[in-house]
Amino acid sequence: MNADPSLRTVKAWPFEEAAKVEDRLKASGKGGALFETGYGPSGLPHIGTFGEVARTTWVRRAFERMTGLPARLIAFSDDMDGLRKVPDNVPNREMLAGYLGRPLTAIPDPFGTHDSFGEHNNARLQAFLDTFGFDYEFASSTDYYRSGRFDAALLRMAERHEEVRGVILPTLGPDRRATYSPFLPIHPETGIVMQVPMEEVRPAEDLLVWTDPDTGKRHGTRITGGHCKAQWKADWALRWYALGVDYEMSGKDLIDSVRLSGQICRILGGQPPAGFTYELFLDEHGGKISKSKGNGLTIDEWLRYAPPESLAQFMYGQPQRAKRLFFDVIPRAVDDYLTNLEKLKAAPEGTNPAWHIHNGSSNDPGSPIAFAMLLNLASVVNAEGPEILWGFIGRYAPGVTAESHPMLARLAGYAVAYYRDFVAPQKRHRAPSAVERGALEDLLAALRALPAESDAEAIQTLLYEVGKRHEFANLRDWFSCLYQVLLGQQEGPRFGGFVALYGIPGTIGLIESALAREATA
């Protein structure tokens, strides 16, 4: 790939991050960059997993285009960690309870599909990432430790044992401080990942000496070859040092961990990677999302109602700002994506989120109809399936079909699902006020006189003219009336566009029905 240095000046956060990586490589003399994302495989991949890999991918692509240098992305699984508790959402929980403390890759798979629980979850992670077409190399902590990839770094950490301890000890309470070591030996008899103090650390002999607190038996464990692993913050630093990681982003909750791991990486003789701290998501009330509370939005739920491109759009925007992640943000994300896709086709610019989502260009024809408009249509016709929407779509956009516009076809299906689950249960038509009733009667007469082929702009102009003729405090109140009285919802997109899609005769029927309801109430 040819380098394009001009991209360094593009005002978009992936290019700003890529510039940090380029500066790092200039200082180190490396000819390529290594990007990393980390994953704890004791649970299932989630919406945050998607966000971190997608965001890192955008920085990686920006770096490649800007510099012309090669870059790799490693998805690293901490599958050698000990199982701390039995997950709620797995079978054979009683069986798993007998393996607490053992590495995930040394525990039988409760699903019975893989050689270990860790391998099962690793397969789920890879299938998850493959679904979205991410370009990555999978890395297993167990494989790296056992194969010797970390041996030299582990011995280096043993040589600097007290200095590494000195970084972590001030952050611990008195009890934990007395027992802390960056090394976690694997018990030779039970297979448990032990958290015990090291009585002796002998790097020249490749040896850790420690005592089992339950039996009082003294053990000597090799430092290398997968016989021990490093504690969390030391493990992160070990990985950065051993692999030469150039870039890794992380959430706001890991700021202190990044700082401490960076100090340890320097003690080992390495340079911590460039990084980026993203904000965490909030629920609809502004509270912190908790898996145990179930107050967040899962990736499966998002993809039930919108395409993955819309989720990417949501993840792209302002990653250093806390955002509310709940069902009501989905329609806006879809339409923001559609708008940016149209801009990308007209002018491929690196400031456009769709440029990063589609790696610079896209031939997708997108959708001539906004998702919010499809939701309104589904609401009015009480759609039970997408096929009912296509009669209106065909009249509004002649020649547009599911085959010519596959994104629109997908959106029609999503709109029906979203309407069924979220709009229909909340649908409430209110009666018009006296002022609103007069305006609706005026609009009814105006629409009857309007040519049937009038476009959305002509209809929108007519709506403004009718609203101005009546005593609304402002025109926003008039448009709120249209949505609340005619459609039974609080708001929506430009009403002129909806009338053009639904049809003038159909809209006349809506107004007549609304006035009739009031007359008989």
Overview in brief:
The chain is mostly helical. It contains 22 helices and twelve strands. α1 packs across α2.
Explained architecture:
The chain is mostly helical and 521 residues long. Helix content is 49%, strand content 10%. The protein is built from 22 helices and twelve strands. The chain is elongated, with a radius of gyration of 29 Å. 40% of the residues are buried. The model has no long low-confidence stretch (mean pLDDT 93). It catalyses: tRNA(Lys) + L-lysine + ATP = L-lysyl-tRNA(Lys) + AMP + diphosphate. Belongs to the class-I aminoacyl-tRNA synthetase family. A motif ('KMSKS' region) lies at residues 288-292.
Offer a few descriptive terms.
mainly alpha; 12 strands; 3-stranded parallel β-sheet; 22 helices
Topology:
Blueprint: H1 13-28, E1 33-39, H2 47-67, E2 71-77, H3 93-97, H4 117-131, E3 137-140, H5 141-147, H6 151-159, H7 161-168, H8 174-179, E4 183-185, E5 200-202, E6 207-211, E7 218-221, E8 228-230, H9 232-243, E9 247-251, H10 255-268, E10 274-278, E11 281-282, H11 299-305, H12 308-316, E12 323-324, H13 330-346, H14 353-357, H15 371-380, H16 387-396, H17 406-423, H18 434-449, H19 456-468, H20 475-487, H21 495-502, H22 504-520
Parallel strand pairs: 1-2, 2-3, 9-10, 11-12
Antiparallel strand pairs: 4-8, 5-6, 6-7
Helix pairs in contact: 1-2, 6-9, 7-10, 9-10, 12-13, 15-17, 18-19, 18-22, 19-21
